[in-house]
Write a structure and sequence with these properties.
Low-confidence stretches of chain A: none
Number of helices of chain A: 22
Largest interface: A-B, 141 and 141 residues
Helix content of chain A: 40-55%
Largest sheet of chain A: 6 strands, mixed
Mean pLDDT of chain A: 95
CATH superfamily of the largest domain in chain A: Butyryl-CoA Dehydrogenase, subunit A, domain 3
Radius of gyration of chain A: 28 Å
Oligomer: homodimer
Shape of chain A: globular
Chain lengths: ~675, ~675
């Protein structure tokens, strides 16, 4: 096929890459074996007609859900045909890139049965669920309660006579709502309900509740269940988020999950031994979400980087020379306004990736400590994972939409591929802890550290040690940034000192503001803005530190020096761009002087210029295949306009010369005042 | 019907309003007569089954477009049945709240024929179009060119023998793309094409080009036309944005629009007398977009304000007392984190509304000047309208999505109503001038003013007079904010001085940076970040000034003193919140001191508290009816959960007990490993 100009442009950009791309792919995905396996699984999905990208959009809600069911079945068939491990199966599900009706069965229902069921329960329900002879969902939120789970209104009341729980929606707002897999597919639901024995309320516990008959899939009497309908922005279109309302629905006493709390045959409630152990799985989930934020944003940035490389607009010179053909219009990626938005985003992607690695290591080491009964690191790991989840998923959601804006008019076509990524990703800012609320937990944790700093400074946790410096307020207020010339900004210790100072100041301010009232309580809700600022400042510190440590780790892994150099530039750009975003705080504190702000901007500009030849390679390194990218504008070959044109031609609406609706509507419009006399 | 708690909450909030709401409604919509007419037209649409909100979503692309056609026909029927004026007809189309296939016929094709057609052409084509005996679209952008219209590749070449233009797509990238109404409905297109006579290229001109036969709606030979498919985020779902590619399609010479440039029968090209007159309509369009930004954001904020008033979550005290029942959970709107996001947005809405009024007045006075051949104000009005369009539509798009985030989990339901608003609005950041590119024009205009300030300061235009102060650099750099105590922040002259100082500094900096190269040219593209910052700073100044003048105008219109007080608070909050967002700039410049920053924050907090009782009324004042809001969560009665539940129950997918797809997909999943043995 003839090389079009866009194809030449992308190839030329690729040729300029200064480092071996595969080196970085290995750094991202772990090993050559893992890369190879990923590619095999990606191809398995890409080559299957059920997962074709051509027929995924423009469907009605009923068709969408039906397609979600078809994809679910096909995935199970592939698992069987190719003897896929559970891990490989979940990777394939990721490559399908749709929230599916079976998604939460696999990622929530099964794990929770093993985590919260007794050994006996795990043995009974586990295999049934793994062989999907039953399909479950995880039903927590209600129409009236999302964030505040302590006020859930669904009840499970012990009926001693029948030895059953009576599951009941006590009020209208008790209706379970938003539950993935509940709408049409599930046979069982893991219901969080208030456990009540003899009128005493023991709070929310988990129960396995049959929803639909295994015989004919009809809901049981006393169970009003259905789909909650379309979601915003066309997101979550193939999954059946559902509602359920119970009218005194009885289930066996043994269906309560009893690994921790128990209720005996004679109706005795037995308390769980440890209440904090359940935090572990939340930490793991949020850690995954940190890495997910990086890969999601990377996908959008891959598309935007490629398209802005091939898109040319305006014959105006830029200082950056066009190597392909100076007589052509300017490549959009050469405009400073585009670089200033895109390049720091790429730096954020790599910083979040590094933080994901940090989280994984923290989680693993915490896990082995927990095995030995040591819960000392749990609080810090939980606080960091909450804060990072909030900060990183906010960055990613904003960034994906920024990618669309970078792509001008065509970015608004569904075929740009950004729409699907963003509309599916954006609710992650709300689920698994609302991003605004999570910051409260993280901030309160830091407050504990600052109070520890005055009494037992040696006990302050590793990522909070900067709070110690705030104790001597005079010395802390006299702290100044050590930058003397622009190049000093590239020193990691100078960068980290700035992050530490800002977070330190915010935690000290919060400690001052959090004055207990007469009854000893603090009106936290009045401080939630301050908590929010502190939490993000702390997360930014963790991100900057992870990025710096990531460069060191790349060095110790023996990556090529060119690769290490580009990772160092990204780490620098992340740090400096993030500092720049809070210049007001630094200036108000006299930590930075106006000339230092000037030199900061200069250094950021230099870093961006130094990355210009590498951004295509930096995105290629993620190794997304075209099927998964699902973008006419961001494909590997760069042939954006042709792919856009081809996608459009395949549309159902273009298969007839005259549209369905002509006789019914168009002709009557044209003839309302009689036919035209031309 | 029994009052539910949410209904009581909203009623209680409404009862606390400190000012007469109708007073403000009159201020917004003009007069009691206009309010009454608006309500009649809104009811006309709301009561017509074709425009029912129940069946608008969850449709396939083909069904969506068909519904768009049905709505188009119904609108024309209503026009006839109720003898609607064109203005009332367009208001009804607004209330339908969908981009429709006939939309651009009415708002672009018809006006352009009258604006750019000769008298003879207007007489011939105008009535045909007004009676929609032909349906037109306006075809400018191509697949390869959106922003840069000077490089359009479609040609209209004069064939002297046949006295015809030959319309031709010279390359693949010349295909017209994104054209609303072109996909399935239009019979004619107003094509922008390069006019070529005897090999000489005269640049882009407009031509009326027949696309589909009036007999059977089939495209003419040489015309490949169709729909460009789905757009991002489910937006623009009912309109047929289309593509067209011409293969030497002949049209009569007289089909060139000849009000300005002409081509005579013997093939002579006659130049247009004035080139700048066409700017007028662009200014008008962008002025409308300023007001549109306010009303669009107001709609989303109405929903968010009402829902956060009725949503209760967490039993934590806030300093703001719950008047309804202190034993209930806290109303979400009482959290400072919510107020800090929502209240400044409401202030932005009113500032943008005031700027819309400013623009209208400027446009009208410019128009009467133009009639007298005076083009002196054109440049300023054009620059301000470009800048405001960019700033205001950015604020509105960001704000609408922020409203969704304020609404937590349920915000992501389609039934929140935010999704439709945002997905339809967000492309306005790109069309009618990309928001990033527009800032370049506006900034260059200000540079001209600063150079004028040194030579002929009396000629500097009214909204740019602050540049004069920058000429004496020493005095300018010594400028300091006059605030001594928090209350000083409420003085309009102090607020405006801050905006003027910041914009002045940015224009002076840009003048220094814009150093011509040896050939006298300036590499503008290297400065586009600086232009962007300057343009927004200037727009913010115009907004703040308009808000302040709006309060004065409300006073002179005789509004109640309570209404004026609340408008003054909004104006203050807009100014202070906007200044706060650029604290870094002010501190770096020593214009603000750290204690002034402290007092600024304090004053913002006070303003927010003072508005807390009025936000529901401030949104009610826009007088949006429930059908137009189309939000289960934001309806006037506040019964959010019940409406959400009811919307869900109506979904097609919930009309059967067992989903379509059970036998085909679910049963095979459940039985892949044999049936469950329970």
């Amino acid at each position: 096929m003839a090389q079009t100009q866009p194809m030449k442009d992308l190839a030329a950009a690729r040729a300029k890459t200064s480092f071996p791309v595969h080196d970085l792919t290995r750094y991202i995905h772990g090993s050559d074996e893992k890369i190879a396996r990923r590619r095999e699984l990606a191809a398995l999905v890409a080559n299957d007609p059920v997962f074709s990208n051509d027929k995924r959009t423009g469907l009605s809600r009923v068709q969408d859900v039906k397609q979600g069911l078809a994809m679910s079945l096909r995935l199970y068939q592939l698992k069987e045909e190719h003897k896929l491990s559970q891990e490989d199966f979940l990777t394939c599900m990721d490559f399908v890139d749709e929230l599916l009706p079976i998604g939460l069965h696999e990622t929530a229902f099964i794990p929770v049965i093993y985590a919260q069921g007794s050994e006996e329960q795990a043995k009974y329900w586990g295999p049934l669920a793994e062989k999907h002879q039953i399909i479950g969902c995880y039903a927590q939120t209600e129409i009236g309660h999302g964030s505040n789970l302590s006020e859930l209104e669904t009840t499970a009341t012990l009926d001693r006579d029948s030895d059953q729980w009576i599951i009941h929606s006590t009020t209208f707002t008790a209706s379970k709502f938003w539950i993935g897999g509940l709408g049409v597919i599930c046979t069982h639901a893991l219901i969080q309900a208030r456990l009540i024995i003899d009128g005493k309320d023991y709070g929310a516990h988990g129960f396995i509740v049959p929803i639909r008959s295994l015989k004919d899939h009809r809901p049981f009497p006393g169970v009003k269940v259905g789909d909650i309908g379309p979601k915003a922005y066309g997101g979550f279109s193939k999954i059946d988020n559902g509602f359920v309302r119970f009218d005194k629905h009885p289930i066996p006493r043994e269906n309560m999950l009893m690994r921790f709390a128990k209720v005996t045959k004679d109706g005795q409630y037995v308390k769980p031994p440890h209440s904090k152990l359940a935090y572990g799985s939340m930490v793991l989930l949020r850690s995954h979400m940190v890495r997910g934020a990086a890969t999601t944003l990377a996908r959008a940035a891959t598309i935007a980087t490629r398209y802005t490389t091939v898109r040319r607009q305006f014959k105006v010179p830029t200082s950056r020379k066009d190597v392909v053909n100076p007589s052509l219009e300017t490549q959009v990626i050469n405009y400073p306004m585009v670089q200033a938005r895109l390049f720091p985003m790429i730096a954020q992607i790599y910083a979040i990736l590094a933080a994901g690695n940090t989280m994984r290591e923290m989680y693993n080491s915490m896990l082995s400590e927990l095995m030995n009964g040591d819960i000392s690191s749990l609080a810090e790991v939980h606080a960091i994972s909450s804060g990072l989840k909030s900060t990183c998923s906010t960055i990613a959601a904003t960034g994906v939409e920024d990618c669309r804006k970078l792509m001008g008019g065509h970015g608004y076509s569904y075929f740009s591929g950004i729409s699907h990524i963003w509309s599916t990703y954006v609710p992650s800012n709300t689920y698994e802890g609302d991003n605004f609320l999570l910051t409260q937990q993280s901030a309160r944790y830091l407050l504990k550290q600052i109070s520890l700093a005055t009494t037992e400074p040696e006990k302050v946790t590793p990522y909070s040690r900067y709070v110690i410096k705030t104790i001597d307020q005079d010395a802390f207020q006299a702290e100044r940034c050590a930058v003397q010339e622009p190049v000093d900004w590239l020193r990691p210790e100078i960068q980290l000192a700035a992050f530490e100072h800002r977070a330190g100041r915010l935690v000290a301010d919060l400690a001052l503001a959090a004055i207990p009232m007469q009854d000893g309580s603090i009106v936290w809700s009045d401080l939630n803005l301050e908590c929010w600022r502190l939490c993000h400042a702390h997360s930014q510190y963790v991100l900057a530190r992870s990025a710096i440590e990531g460069v060191a780790s790349a060095r110790s892994q023996g990556l090529a020096k060119e690769t290490i150099l580009v990772l160092k530039r990204l780490s620098d750009l992340f740090a400096l761009h993030t500092i720049q975003a809070s210049l007001g705080d630094y200036l108000e504190d006299f930590y930075l002087s106006p000339p230092q702000c000037q030199s900061l901007r200069l250094q950021i500009k230099k870093l961006q210029e130094s990355l210009a030849d590498d951004v295509v390679g930096l995105m290629d390194a993620f190794d997304f295949d075209d099927h998964f990218l699902n973008s006419a504008l961001g494909s590997f070959d760069g042939n954006a306009y042709q792919h856009l044109w081809d996608s459009v031609q395949k549309e159902e609406i273009n298969q007839t010369e005259v549209v369905d609706g002509y006789k019914e509507y168009i002709a009557p419009i044209l003839n309302q005042h009689g036919p035209a006399k031309l």
